[in-house]
């Protein structure tokens, strides 16, 4: 059992309050996931000629500026660094794969959490409130955010096994449920060049989306394929640079509720996680239909 929450702001005036609005939603899911928690926030977007990487390391005092100096020398470009607990967000003008390789060469114990123009993924083992406080979630700004609280079932309690899982540039996935065919799919996806770091079935779902997107599918098409190809019970929320998508399996075994007002669209595994949002008493509320892909975002 896990908890999922998401918040997309239709009203840009609220973007300075995104973290403040979202933090109680994440903490409300503690009962569904006390082992670890994480979130992917979208904002502070860089230009098309740049990339933004979120990195984490076990050492709270890791010398991120030493890494930045190496990257500046190798790519002949300025690198900005923002520290956040044991994480750092780096921005530079370069291509993704050479930067990944340079980071690994510098120190292969650095974990690359996300790469894109807008996304930042932060996650850790611990209670949701501890994770929120660790990364100062309440002070964060942005346009939308998705989060997850985990109660480990099929694999160990580790940061690597916590959600969100990255699925590509500015893409990520959180999952509530369990997949029955993940072992077979993992082997098939490995043959397609998809790499895995855990035995978590949710990482297989993320890998599936990565593969479909590489093959040219849209996010909607990839999720529609997931409905057909992934066996088991699931509610997925997928973050993109422009918004987020929600889909439930055809049986809709795992709970989900949506809320929409003129100011926002929100989703959660349980209604009480939405109860602190402004104007929730007048929101349109509904349960997502089984086997249907929903998407909210820009454009």
UniProtKB/TrEMBL annotation:
InterPro entries: GATase_2_dom (IPR017932), Ntn_hydrolases_N (IPR029055). Pfam families: GATase_6 (PF13522). Residues 2-299 form the Glutamine amidotransferase type-2 domain. CDD domains: GlxB. SUPFAM superfamilies: N-terminal nucleophile aminohydrolases (Ntn hydrolases). Keywords: Glutamine amidotransferase, Transferase. This is Glutamine amidotransferase family protein. It comes from Thiomicrorhabdus marina. The lineage of its organism: Bacteria, Pseudomonadati, Pseudomonadota, Gammaproteobacteria, Thiotrichales.
């Amino acid at each position: 059992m896990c908890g999922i929450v998401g918040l997309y702001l239709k009203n840009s005036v609220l973007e300075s309050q995104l973290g403040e609005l979202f933090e109680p939603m994440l903490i409300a899911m503690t009962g569904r996931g006390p082992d670890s928690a994480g979130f992917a926030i979208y904002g502070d977007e860089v230009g098309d000629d740049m990339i933004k990487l979120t990195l984490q390391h076990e050492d709270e005092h890791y010398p991120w500026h030493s890494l930045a100096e190496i990257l500046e020398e190798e790519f002949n470009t300025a690198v900005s660094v923002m520290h956040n607990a044991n994480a750092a967000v780096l921005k530079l003008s370069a291509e993704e794969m050479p930067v990944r390789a340079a980071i690994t060469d510098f120190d292969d114990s650095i974990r690359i959490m996300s790469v894109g123009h807008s996304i930042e993924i932060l996650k850790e083992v611990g209670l949701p409130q501890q994770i929120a406080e660790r990364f100062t979630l309440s002070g964060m700004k942005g346009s939308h955010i998705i989060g997850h609280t985990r109660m480990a079932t099929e694999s160990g309690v580790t940061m690597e096994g916590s959600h969100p899982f990255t699925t590509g540039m500015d893409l990520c996935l959180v999952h509530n449920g369990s997949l029955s065919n993940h072992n077979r799919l993992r082997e098939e996806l490995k043959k397609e060049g998809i790499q895995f770091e855990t035995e978590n079935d949710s990482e297989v779902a993320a890998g599936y989306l990565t593969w479909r997107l590489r093959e040219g599918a849209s996010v909607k098409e990839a999720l529609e394929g997931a409905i057909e190809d992934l066996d088991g019970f699931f509610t997925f929320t997928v973050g993109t640079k422009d918004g987020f998508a929600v889909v439930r399996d055809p049986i809709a075994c795992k709970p989900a509720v949506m809320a929409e007002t003129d100011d926002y669209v929100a989703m959660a595994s349980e209604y009480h996680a939405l109860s602190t949002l402004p104007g929730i008493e007048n929101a349109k509320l509904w349960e997502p239909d089984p086997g249907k892909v929903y998407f909210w975002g820009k454009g």
